[in-house]
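protein under study:
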Amino acid sequence: MLGLGLPANSLLKECSSYDTVGNGYFSLTIHAIPARWRRLAVITSAFHMPRARAIFDTTYGLATRSLLGGPFALSYHEASDEGLFDPEVLATRVAKEQAAVATWQRDTSAFARLADLHAWLHATHLCYAVYRQHEVAAKDDPKLAATY
């Protein structure tokens, strides 16, 4: 972003997350809610955008309903995947992303409040539930591991 000419003081880091779910949750709770921002941009790779959009729409939507009363205006911007990975590797990652969207939708469909997401995140999610930390392991699929 700096290379594109954006001033450093207009960019903020979200450094509490381990994954896209955390990106959505912590960008909301660390930055958007305290700063009372309503308009935000989400920028990620094209292969990752469907999952990022699903997660950010759900997360920010829960905050709108349970905390703030007014909607967030999220804009989504894709970076090209062209030349990023070997086509077979990219196809493996796209399949993983599609499965992750379905899992996210299944896991969060009953959530009505941001507190529901908070409880699930810290009680169930592999990256954030302390009692599950022993389950974290390296990616077994070498093609998938190449995309991280």
